[in-house]
Amino acid sequence: MLKWGGKIRLDEKGWFHLSPYWSVGHQKYHNFIQLDADRSVESATSVLRGGVSAQVAYQKGNTRFTLYGGWNGEDLQNNMDADFKEFHYTGNLGSVQMFELPWAIRVYSDLDLSWNRGYAHAPMNKMEYVWNVQLSRSFLKKNSLTLTLTGYDLLRGKQNNWYQVSDYSTVYSRYMYVNSYFMLEAKYVF
Predict the structure, then answer these.
(1) In angstroms, rounded to a whole number, what is the distance separating the alpha carbons of residues 182 and 148?
(2) Rounded mean pLDDT of 13-28?
(3) Taking all residues of the chain, what is their mean pLDDT, rounded to a whole number?
(4) CA–CA separation, 156 vs 67, rounded Å?
(5) What's the chain look like in SS3?
(6) Given a cut of 80, is residue 105 above it in pLDDT?
(7) pLDDT class for 140, splitting at 50, 70, 90?
(8) 20 to 30 A from 74, CA-CA: which of 34, 90, 114, 165?
(9) How far apart are the C-alpha atoms of 140 and 138, rounded to whole Å?
């Protein structure tokens, strides 16, 4: 595994930050499946994983802008089924912005686009986009009261699918969650 990062100073208050990341790994799972009272058979699933990601950030004062992206892949094989070979991958791109508006209103926004490809079960080959926004403002003496309004998944792009492959089965689940909502928070510091 290799990881590297660094900061480059652009001026007295601005920072540029780059952090790439690579990873590779292999796992092998062994299970014994009971066929009847006297016989069992060994099942082995081999998983080869790899991925790469990078992030670029710029910060100056209270303003920060970040772009990120990544790709991860898995190659699955099982000795019980010679035809079972699955290579699937996920990827994502996104950005995070933090800045301040007039009247000392702080804004935090993140937009993320992610995708899955290569799954045997078609609904898992999907693309999702999620946009979250947060506005906050502090009041009173010493900014002791902070009000925060947060909107989650404003574009309603989040899906609730789950997929797992094991020696015994392939499980696909879809959940019914409320992903898109607003939350108002008040915080008072004594």
Answers:
(1) 10
(2) 74
(3) 81
(4) 22
(5) CEECCEEEECCCCEEEEECCEEEEEEEEEEEEEECCCCCEEEEEEEEEEEEEEEEEEEEECCEEEEEEEEEEEEEEEECCCCCCEEEEEEEEEEEEEEEEEHHHEEEEEEEEEEEEECCCCHHHCCEEEEEEEEEEEEECHHHCEEEEEEEECCCCCCCCEEEEECCCCEEEEECCCCCCEEEEEEEECC
(6) yes
(7) confident
(8) 34
(9) 7
- Considering the entire predicted model, what is its pTM? 0.69
Neighbour count for residue 25 (Cβ, 10 Å): 11
What mean pLDDT do residues 27-50 have? 82
Ramachandran area for residue 37 (φ above 0: left; ψ -120 to 50: alpha; else beta): alpha
